[in-house]
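Design job #97: recover the sequence.
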């Protein structure tokens, strides 16, 4: 039997030229028979054969050109043949697209992968491209990473929240998510949903897009997807919000307040002030023990990097708090800490209304809220950096306390107060 292949040659570092053709299951039958798609994979020395589901009588098949004959004219037979040819062209185009995708990402294409993609496209069979099942695998891998590059619990929680957000997006918009079809259109729908439906600020969207792209890159590297469209997804630029930072006078005022009638407030206050005078992340200072104190220094491994050793000198305030609790600070979860510290500041009469500017899409929105509602455990770290910079402490010294390696990230914590701005102005223009 004569075999003439339709050739599509793809030149790529890891891919041999890929040829494909069509053949009949029973070429000598006097009845209709199935049309098969066929491609030879040189790296595996095997043929990929796939049923198109289309049928034709061998008498109506052009064996030389590997397509139905009599494609022209207005006869019913010609119309049927054109319809079959149109379906075969879908397989040809899809195969070429996959080959080109793999060429672009410089990865090997094999029969198992191409069969999975064909099944998904033409039989709607979910193989490995099950978006949320793969996301669960991604999270599980992150949870069980003992390579030394493991992410923090807070980052892991963000990935889980991001998955929930994507599930809500799919449910609300009826936009079925698929690794292979997560394109620019889907991405823009997701951005629109986050801004208009969820009312996320640009900073929240920026963070969530980063988490999403990390997952999509992981999926690509795992070969669960050949779709690399996400590489060109642009994250909304960050917008610097006017977050709160306390000055040294406020910290001292809070520390001096008598909370003897409310031990819960006292413990929360002490934890918060400890963060203000050490610059440590809450996860680090909330678990301090006697073993972490060596001489005049607190020596711990940075919670975020898990490799960086921090050496933070003790001062009168941090030392007194440690001694008060016999070097075992109160054990409070970050969630509860963020809830309780607002109660503390409300009790301290930090109730003045302050303005916060947020960006939603292209719109700037100003919101007024009471001072105490803007306080969180992270305010302590921001306050420490602001206090130290206002005292003209060199950035490198402060960064050695906080564990920052990026000057850009570090400077984002600095929040000069209105009084600070006035004082600096008057120092220059006396």
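Job complete. Output follows.
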């Amino acid at each position: 039997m004569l075999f003439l292949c339709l050739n599509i040659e793809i030149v790529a570092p890891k891919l041999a030229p890929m040829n494909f053709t069509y053949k009949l299951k029973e070429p000598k039958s006097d009845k209709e028979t199935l049309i098969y798609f066929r491609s030879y994979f040189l790296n595996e020395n095997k043929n990929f054969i796939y049923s198109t589901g289309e049928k034709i009588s061998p008498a109506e098949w052009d064996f030389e050109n590997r397509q139905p004959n009599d494609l022209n004219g207005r006869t019913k037979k010609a119309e049927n043949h054109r319809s079959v040819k149109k379906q075969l062209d879908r397989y040809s185009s899809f195969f070429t697209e996959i080959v080109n995708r793999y060429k672009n990402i410089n990865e090997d294409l094999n029969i198992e992968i191409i069969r999975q993609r064909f099944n998904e496209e033409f039989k709607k069979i979910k193989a490995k491209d099950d978006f949320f099942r793969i996301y669960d695998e991604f999270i599980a891998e992150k949870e069980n990473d003992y390579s030394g590059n493991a992410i923090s619990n807070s980052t892991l929680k963000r990935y889980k929240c991001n998955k929930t957000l994507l599930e809500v997006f799919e449910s609300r918009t009826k936009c079925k998510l698929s690794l292979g079809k997560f394109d620019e259109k889907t991405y823009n729908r997701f951005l629109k949903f986050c801004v208009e439906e969820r009312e996320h600020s640009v900073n929240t969207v920026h963070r969530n897009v980063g988490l999403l792209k990390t997952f999509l890159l992981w999926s690509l590297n795992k070969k669960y997807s050949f779709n690399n469209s996400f590489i060109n997804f642009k994250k909304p630029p960050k917008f610097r919000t006017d977050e709160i930072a306390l000055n040294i006078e406020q910290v001292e005022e809070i520390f001096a307040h008598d909370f003897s009638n409310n031990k819960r407030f006292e413990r929360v206050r002490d934890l918060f002030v400890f963060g203000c005078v050490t610059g440590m992340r809450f996860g680090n200072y909330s678990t301090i023990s006697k073993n972490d104190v060596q001489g005049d220094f607190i020596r711990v491994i940075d919670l975020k990097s898990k490799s960086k050793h921090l050496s933070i000198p003790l001062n009168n305030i941090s030392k007194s708090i440690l001694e008060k609790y016999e070097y075992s600070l109160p054990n409070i979860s970050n969630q509860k800490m963020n809830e309780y510290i607002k109660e503390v500041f409300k009790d301290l009469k930090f109730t003045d209304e302050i303005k916060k500017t947020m960006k939603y899409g292209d719109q700037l929105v100003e919101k007024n809220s009471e001072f105490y509602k803007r306080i969180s455990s992270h305010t302590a770290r921001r306050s420490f950096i602001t206090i130290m910079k206002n005292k003209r402490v060199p950035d490198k010294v402060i960064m050695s306390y906080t564990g920052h390696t990026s000057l850009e990230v570090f400077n984002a914590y600095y929040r000069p107060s209105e009084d600070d701005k006035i004082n600096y102005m008057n120092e220059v223009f006396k």
